[in-house]
Automatic annotation (TrEMBL):
Signal peptide extent: none
Name of protein: Dehydrogenase
InterPro entries: Gfo/Idh/MocA-like_OxRdtase_N, GFO_IDH_MocA-like_dom, NAD(P)-bd_dom_sf
Domain Gfo/Idh/MocA-like oxidoreductase N-terminal positions: 1-122
Ranges where the GFO/IDH/MocA-like oxidoreductase domain occurs: 130-250
Keyword terms, alphabetized: NAD, Oxidoreductase
Highest rank taxon of the organism: Bacteria
PANTHER family per UniProt: BINDING ROSSMANN FOLD OXIDOREDUCTASE, PUTATIVE (AFU_ORTHOLOGUE AFUA_2G10240)-RELATED, NAD(P)-BINDING ROSSMANN-FOLD SUPERFAMILY PROTEIN-RELATED
Length: 344
């Protein structure tokens, strides 16, 4: 199986190395607007590792691929997904599917019409802890679920230049929580109320963004989900979820890597080391996610469809609107489909 990868920044380069070790992959074909970067990744096949070859960006879709991984800048995601499915290529796209809700709606509709499988990269669906939490809910072990509490905080803020094109903290960070709430509970969000603030670098406010945000989500069965996110948690990467039910509570992320320090007398946990970035926190999940994509290329269903990505994007769109307007937002206010064409 020959898998293409376009866009060779940090995550793209990491995905190339991961793909080399996925069973069934014989070659990874890479392309980037910086041709030298692509050439620098080329490598012959080795024991247990696929070969890596490079082609110009404009030649990638005609390079005899079986599937394509899109890890370009976010603004180009929609263009590449459309082109890939038009070429009949099963596609993996890092989130977001596009940088505006309107374009996400357009891309999702384009993919549906094509009939080609697309997998959108929400790696928490492949994390062992989140999967165990989902199973605890689905098995009935917890009884009815009434509350979820999620945390997603970065150890260090991104560079100033990243923020203006990021879509804001809800679309960039909390979208993972929005997706995993749906994944764990199997329910849909019906309303949100969100707030945000900035106590850090001036460039967040200059871009109309915040460096800390929180959202209260109500699900369609009355379950409450409370989510918080921040660009500042200097002790380490902190990504957690608590699921509270009738018969008990389970938690994701409560191990020795937890970037918290207890001030209770005699408490010695957690002992570390902490994670310093999101990729190291989810390294096994990223690997399993790409293996899931290769299985999809082989005919398995998409593990995270364009419709899943659309619903997560609608939730954070509602969060951003709520934060800006200072009011609760019903999900019915957020478009779920393109407007019908005007009739003459």
């Amino acid at each position: 199986m020959r898998i293409g990868c376009v866009g060779l920044g940090r995550i793209g380069t990491s995905h190339v190395q991961t793909l080399r070790a996925v069973p069934g992959v014989s070659e990874v074909v890479v392309a980037d607007v910086d041709g030298a970067r692509a050439e620098g990744l080329t490598s012959p096949a080795a024991e247990g590792l696929a070969a890596v070859s490079a082609v110009p960006v404009e030649a990638l879709l005609t390079a005899g691929l079986d599937g394509l991984v899109v890890t370009t800048g976010s603004a180009a995601h929609g263009t590449w997904v459309r082109a890939a499915v038009d070429a009949g290529l099963p596609t993996f796209c890092e989130k977001p599917l596009a940088t505006s809700l309107t374009e996400i709606l357009e891309v999702a509709e384009h993919v549906r019409r094509s009939g080609v499988a697309v997998h959108v990269g929400f790696q928490r669906r492949f994390d062992a802890g989140y999967r165990a939490a989902a199973e605890a809910v689905r098995s009935g072990e917890l009884g009815f679920v009434h509350t979820l509490r999620g945390v997603a905080s970065d150890m260090l803020p991104p560079a100033a230049g990243f923020i203006p094109g990021s879509g804001g903290i809800f679309r960039d960070c909390l979208v993972h929580d929005a997706d995993v709430i749906r994944f764990v509970t199997g329910r849909e969000v019906v309303s949100v109320y969100a707030v945000g603030g900035t106590k850090g670098a001036d460039f967040f406010a200059a871009a109309g963004d915040v460096d800390t945000g929180a959202a209260l989500l109500t699900l369609d069965d009355g379950t409450i989900a409370m989510l918080s996110t921040s660009r500042y948690n200097g002790q380490g990467q902190d990504v957690r979820l608590e699921v509270h039910g009738e018969h008990g509570t389970v938690a994701v992320g409560l191990d020795d890597s937890l970037a918290l320090r207890s001030v209770e007398p005699g408490a010695s946990q957690p002992t570390g080391p902490v994670y310093t970035d999101f990729y190291s926190r989810f390294r096994p999940a990223f690997a399993d996610e790409l293996a899931g994509f290769v299985a999809m290329v082989g005919g398995s269903p998409s593990p995270c469809t364009v419709d899943d990505a659309l619903e997560a994007s609608r939730v954070v769109e509602a969060c951003d609107l709520s934060r800006r307007e200072g009011r609760p937002v019903l999900m019915s206010e957020i478009p779920s489909a393109l407007p019908a064409p005007a009739t003459s």
